[in-house]
Amino acid sequence: MRYRKLDENGDYSFGNSQSNFMANTPETVGQAVLTRLNLWIGEWFANISDGTGWDTSVLGKGTDSLFELTLRQRVLETPGVERVTDFQGSFDGDVRRLTVEITIDTIYGQTTVSGSTS
């Protein structure tokens, strides 16, 4: 598995160097997970049905009991992920803010991905 590295702003790194890529590491799979989680349904023109249901299943009204199931499913469908070993999530419906930390076993070892959105 090979992925282009992201810079500190979350943009792809470009240049003439192989150092712009990650390959066959737990962090490579972790970046694939983050990329998939950050894709909203309908955002990718080539497959508008792919994506995470942020507005309907994660941050929408009455989703405080659905967000973990939705995110776990999206993570488990990522190539290279074998299992979710730990999921810590905090959802504040008043400000629609979600913070998660997910530990996963990958085909290359264990890694943790985390983030928040509002």
What does this protein structure show overall?
This protein has helices at about 25-40, 55-60, 65-75; strands spanning about 1-5, 20-25, 80-90, 95-105, 110-115. The longest helix has 13 residues, at about 25-40. It contains 3 helices and 5 strands; from the N terminus they run ββαααβββ. It has a single domain (about 1-115), classed as Nuclear Transport Factor 2, Chain: A. The model has no long low-confidence stretch (mean pLDDT about 90). The protein has a 3-stranded antiparallel sheet with strand order 3-4-5, covered by helices on one side. The protein has a two-stranded antiparallel ribbon with strand order 1-2. By secondary structure, the chain is α+β, with helices and mostly antiparallel strands.
CATH topology: Nuclear Transport Factor 2, Chain: A
The strands making up the biggest β-sheet line up spatially as 3-4-5
Instruction: Tell me, briefly, the overall form.
Output: globular
CATH 2nd-level architecture: Roll
The main pleated sheet reads as: 3 strands, antiparallel
Return the string of H and E elements.
EEHHHEEE
According to DSSP, the number of beta strands is 5
**Overall tally of structural domains:** 1
Distance between the termini: 31 Å
Structural class by sheet pairing and helices: alpha+beta
Q: Give the fraction of residues assigned to helices.
A: 10-25%
Text of the CATH class? Alpha Beta
Q: Which band does the percent of strand residues land in? A: 25-35%
Q: How large is the radius of gyration?
A: 15 Å
